[in-house]
Amino acid sequence: MLTIDWAPNHKDSMPLYRQITEYIKNKITLGEWPIHSKLPPQRRLAHILQVNRSTLTIALDELIADGLLETRAGSGTWVANNTWSVLASTPTVNWNSYLDKGLYLPNLQIIQEINQAEFKPNMIRLGTGELSPEFFPRDMMSSILRNLPERINSLGYEEPKGLLFLRQQIRIYLRSLGIDTSVSSIMIVSGALQALQLICSSLLPKDSTILLEKPSYLFSLKLFQSMNMQFSGIPLDKEGIELTPIAFQKQHKNANLLYTIPCFHNPTSIVMSKQRRRDLIHLCQQEQLPVIEDDVYRELWLDSPPPMPLKALEREGLVLYIGSLSKSLSPGLRIGWIVGPEPVIERLADVKMQNDYGSSSLSQWTAAEWFASGLYQQHLEEVRKALRIRREAACKSLQTHFADIATWQVPTGGFYIWLSLTHPLSMQKLFNLALNEGLLIHPGSIYDYLSNRHLRLSYSYASLSELKEGLYRLSVIIKTLKT
């Protein structure tokens, strides 16, 4: 779907339909909208352009008459095959024919829409899994950056496993979590997602099966299907991932690996209990099933610290442990880490060097200073205080506006409330209606394609006033859909 970040000027002397015509012609002639590109549905396009349907129809009809666009029965409006025969004497390359042949599959359409809508002004983001800009520790960051020149002698490439000083600081931090490891078993990555990509592309054969909780954040990504990986979902209960299906799946589907988010799971916010963690490690040791522990939400506890990581419960190198600063400090730093057996880390580091030749040196030095200065722990205390206030505000709004249409559990940490609607709805329709009202939501179908009655709500991004207003307006939309 094409991206449109423009609207005609209603005060201009040029008619609105003519402005739209010229805008689309310009996009086509510059090659920004290649042949076979599909325009948004007319209702949606009229909303984006802030005009009525009749005005839009006049513009589209003129472009169709000129041969620039064409309509296909039941399929919408497209940039025509004969675009360049109308505009020029020589044909252009059909880039769309290349798009279908790339190695990576496109994101789900709804994920693409979410990614685009997040940057629209005045959008209330009720699902974004990110700290609000209000949380940005401006004064602390200024202090950190002022101290860097004394430490940095150059900003050249770092060694394959990452900046030694940063890995030393992470080693100290990991000890506080019960993970005793050496710096040679720690590797710096550009966020947790790169860690997952490197693990799958470097260590797993094609057509591997990955066990994971269902629902799960990973179901929202096409990255792993692009690498010919298959997912097999395991149910959750209040203590975390259920154990009985794991052994069955390992034996009958020949699963290669287990991926889990044991702390404040995305999207359900469930925390795996201490006993379940021990039992899971014991089971995976018996089954010889490697584990990826995604622990990026650990420090966002609001009531009490979560149990020790899975990695702290084993000494055989069974678990690859992933941590990150993206959720707790700043996603823009793009700094995360993997902890695992040295041969595995060396293999991952070699592949990472082939991909990007190392994470940003400046970001690595910045992250190291956050740990070394002690400001990271101070910042976390402030984040927890602010998140507690937002969690309370979100739960109060839910109690006021959703008590008769949904159920939920109060999260003990993280960003999310897994809202369960009392009646199933069309998630796509709800998403579109909310988006048209300036509300950006994350339907549960993103994380479990069979879900038609869940929403992942986030209290971490929208301001308190936006959170209250947005949840009220969302409840009105849901109640309207029910009737």
UniProtKB/TrEMBL annotation:
<dbReference type="Pfam" id="PF00155">
    <property type="entry name" value="Aminotran_1_2"/>
</dbReference>
<keyword id="KW-0238">DNA-binding</keyword>
<comment type="similarity">
    <text>In the C-terminal section; belongs to the class-I pyridoxal-phosphate-dependent aminotransferase family.</text>
</comment>
<dbReference type="InterPro" id="IPR036388">
    <property type="entry name" value="WH-like_DNA-bd_sf"/>
</dbReference>
<dbReference type="GO" id="GO:0003677">
    <property type="term" value="F:DNA binding"/>
</dbReference>
<dbReference type="InterPro" id="IPR015422">
    <property type="entry name" value="PyrdxlP-dep_Trfase_small"/>
</dbReference>
<dbReference type="GO" id="GO:0003700">
    <property type="term" value="F:DNA-binding transcription factor activity"/>
</dbReference>
<dbReference type="Pfam" id="PF00392">
    <property type="entry name" value="GntR"/>
</dbReference>
<dbReference type="InterPro" id="IPR015424">
    <property type="entry name" value="PyrdxlP-dep_Trfase"/>
</dbReference>
<dbReference type="InterPro" id="IPR036390">
    <property type="entry name" value="WH_DNA-bd_sf"/>
</dbReference>
<protein>
    <submittedName>
        <fullName>Transcriptional regulator, GntR family with aminotransferase domain containing protein</fullName>
    </submittedName>
</protein>
<dbReference type="InterPro" id="IPR051446">
    <property type="entry name" value="HTH_trans_reg/aminotransferase"/>
</dbReference>
<dbReference type="InterPro" id="IPR015421">
    <property type="entry name" value="PyrdxlP-dep_Trfase_major"/>
</dbReference>
<dbReference type="GO" id="GO:0030170">
    <property type="term" value="F:pyridoxal phosphate binding"/>
</dbReference>
<keyword id="KW-0804">Transcription</keyword>
<dbReference type="InterPro" id="IPR004839">
    <property type="entry name" value="Aminotransferase_I/II_large"/>
</dbReference>
<feature type="domain" description="HTH gntR-type">
    <location>
        <begin position="14"/>
        <end position="82"/>
    </location>
</feature>
<dbReference type="InterPro" id="IPR000524">
    <property type="entry name" value="Tscrpt_reg_HTH_GntR"/>
</dbReference>
<keyword id="KW-0805">Transcription regulation</keyword>
<keyword id="KW-0663">Pyridoxal phosphate</keyword>
<keyword id="KW-0808">Transferase</keyword>
<dbReference type="GO" id="GO:0008483">
    <property type="term" value="F:transaminase activity"/>
</dbReference>
<keyword id="KW-0032">Aminotransferase</keyword>
